[in-house]
Amino acid sequence: MNVFLLKMNKKTLGKRSVESLTSDLTEEQRKQLCGLLGNVELTLLYKASVHGYQASAFHQRCDHQGPTLLVAYNHSGYIFGGYTSVDYTQCCQQITDKEAFLFSFQDKEPFCIKVKSGHYARYDDAGGPNFGQQLCFCYNNQPVVYHQGGINAFVFYSDTLYGNDTDLSECEVYKVKHSKSIKPWRNVLWTADRRAQLMGLIRNHKPLMTSVSRVRILMIGPVGAGKSSFFNSINSIFMGRITSKAMSGSAGTSLTTQFRTYPVKDGREGKPLPFALCDTMGLEEQTGAGLDIEDISSILQGHVPDRYKFNPISPFQLNEQKASRPASLQEKIHCVVYVIDATKISLMSDKLEEKLASIRRKVNSLGIPQMVLMTKADEACPEVEKDLQSLYVSSYIKSKVRVKVSFKTVKSTQENGNKLLISFIFMLLLVACLLLFYDQVYRL
Ligand SMILES: Nc1nc2c(ncn2[C@@H]2O[C@H](COP(=O)(O)OP(=O)(O)OP(=O)(O)O)[C@@H](O)[C@H]2O)c(=O)[nH]1
Ligand SMILES: [Mg+2]
Question: I want to staple 165 with a disulfide (CB 3.0 to 4.6 A). Which of 74, 99, 233, 346 is the partner?
Answer without folding.
Answer: 74
